[in-house]
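Much of what follows relies on a compact textual record of a protein's fold. Here is one such record, which you should read through line by line:
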Amino acid sequence: DGKKYVGEFRDGRPHGKGILTLPNGASYRGEFQNGEPNGQGTMTLPDGQSQTGLFSAGKYQPQ
């Protein structure tokens, strides 16, 4: 699927701290739980814009 993950795993899935790079050039650096961004992290979009904060079930949670 073109995704690249470097970091900690549990039961074969991203879990803990890691970096996920997507095929479109976006990336997420932070905490993962059960294969999804979950916890504190930074999502950087292909155009360089970024969002830092809390993620839950793979989605940014505005505060």
Notes: The first strand starts at residue 4 and ends at 10. Strands lie at 4-10, 13-21, 27-33, 36-44, 50-56, 59-60.
